[in-house]
Amino acid sequence: MLALELFRSIPRYAAAKAMAGRMPGLLVGPMAPLRLVTREEPAVRRPGWARVKPRLSGICGSDLGAVTGSTSLYFSSLVSMPFVPGHEVVGELAEDCEDLPRGTRVVIDPVLACAARQTEPCDSCRAGRTNLCDHITVGHVSPGLQTGFCRDTGGGWGEVLVAHRSQLHVVPDDLDDERAVLVEPLACAVQLARRAQVPDGGSVLVSGAGAVGLFAVLALRQLTNAARITVIAKHRGQADLARAFGATDVAQPDEAMRAVRRTTRALRVAPQDLPGPMSRFTGGEGGMLLGGVDVGIDAVGSTSSLDTVLRSTKAGGRVVLSGMPQTADLSPAWFRELEVAGTYASTGDAFEVALGLAREAPLDGVVGGRYALHRWREALDHAHSAGRLGTVKVCFDVRSRA
Amino acid sequence: MSRPGFVLEVDDRTPPLVVQEGEGFRLEEFPRGTRVVYPPESLPAIRDIDGAIRRALLNPVGREPLPELLFAGMRLTIAFDDVSLPLPPMVKPDIRQRIIEQVLTMAAEAGVDDVEIVSANALHRRLTPAELKDIVGERVFRSFFPQGALYNHDAEDHSNLLQVGQTDRGEDVEINRRAAESDLLVYVNINIVAMDGGHKSVPIGLASYKSLRHHHNSHTMVHSRSFMDHTKSAMHASAWRMGRLLADHLKIFTVETTLDNNVFPSTYSFLMKREWEWGVREQAGMLAARRGLALAPKGLRHNIYQGIRAPYGITGITAGETEAVHEITVAKVHQQQMVEVQGQSDVMVLGVPYLGPYNVNAPMNPILAACMGLGYYFNSYVGQPVVRKGGAVILYHPVEEDFSQLHHPSYVDFYEEVLTTSTDPSVIEAKFEQQYATDPWYIHLYRTSYAYHGVHPFYMWYWIAHALDHCGDIVWVGANRRAVERMGFRAASSLADALEMVSGTVGRSPSMTYLHNPPHLLAHVR
Question: Which residue segments constitute the domains of chain A, with CATH numbers given?
Answer without folding.
Answer: 2-182+363-397 (3.90.180.10), 188-342 (3.40.50.720)
